[in-house]
Design goal:
The protein is α/β, with parallel strands linked by helices. The chain has a single domain, classed as Uracil-DNA Glycosylase, subunit E (3-Layer(aba) Sandwich), CATH 3.40.470. A six-stranded mixed beta sheet has the order 1-3-2-4-6-5, with helices on both faces. Helix 2 packs across helix 6 and helix 3 crosses helix 4.
C-alpha cells in the first residue's frame, strides 16, 4: 500500500506496515485503527493534519506539510515481516523519498521504521556510516540532507502502557516541524 499526504511535504513519517484491521482493511496506512487514532490526533495538534481522526480513505483527512509511508506494504503475519518481505518492499519507500523532494525531516515510528528509513536514505544519499545511529525515542541524527527523528511506534502496546504518551509524540512532532522550517499551511 502506498503512502499518502502532501506531495510538498517537508516531514515524512515512516511506520512499519498497514495494520491487518486498519490500513489493510481501509486502504490507507494508519487509517481505521487505534495506532492511527493516536497518530492523527498528534498530527492534528501539531498542525500537520486538518482533522484529528481518520476512519476511511474518503473521510476528508488532509495532511499539510507531511506524508505518511510504511516500510512494508502489506500486513505481515503477527506484525513481524521477514527479511525477504522487508527487502522486496524497500524500493517503494526509497522511491517515495526520491519523489518527495521537499522532505527534510524523517520521523521514524518505531525501531523498524528507523531501520527502514536508514536503509532507504543510504541508497538515496550514500553511506550512513558506522556505527549506525541507534534508535530511541527522541533520537535525532543528521543523515545526508535529512534529519532522522525517532519515536516509539503509536501501537497499543506502547500507548496503553504509557511507554508513548501524547505529550511525548507531540514533542517529537514539534521538533520535526521546527527542523523542517515550516509553519502549518491552512
Amino acid at each position: 500500500m502506498p503512502g499518502f499526504g502532501d506531495p510538498e511535504a517537508r516531514v515524512l513519517l515512516v511506520g512499519l506496515a498497514p495494520a491487518a484491521h486498519g490500513g489493510n482493511r481501509t486502504g490507507r496506512v494508519f487509517t481505521g485503527d487505534r495506532s492511527g487514532d493516536f497518530l492523527f490526533a498528534a498530527l492534528f495538534r501539531s498542525g500537520l493534519a486538518n482533522q484529528s481522526e481518520s476512519v476511511s480513505v474518503v473521510d476528508g483527512l488532509a495532511l499539510r506539510g507531511a506524508y505518511v509511508a510504511a516500510a512494508v506494504r502489506c500486513a505481515p503475519p503477527a506484525n513481524k515481516p521477514n527479511t525477504d518481505e522487508r527487502d522486496r518492499c524497500a524500493p517503494f519507500l526509497r522511491r517515495e523519498i526520491e519523489l518527495l523532494a521537499s522532505v527534510r525531516v524523517i520521523v521514524a515510528l518505531g525501531s523498524y521504521g528507523w531501520d527502514a528509513a536508514l536503509r532507504a536514505v543510504e541508497v538515496v544519499e550514500g553511506p550512513v556510516g558506522r556505527p549506525r545511529p541507534a534508535f530511541g525515542h527522541g533520537a535525532e541524527v543528521l543523515v545526508g540532507r535529512f534529519t532522522l527523528l525517532g519515536t516509539y511506534h503509536p501501537s497499543q502496546q506502547n500507548t496503553f502502557t504509557g511507554r508513548l504518551t501524547p505529550v511525548m509524540l507531540d514533542e517529537v512532532l514539534a521538533r520535526a516541524v521546527a527542523l523542517a522550517g515550516q509553519a502549518a499551511r491552512s
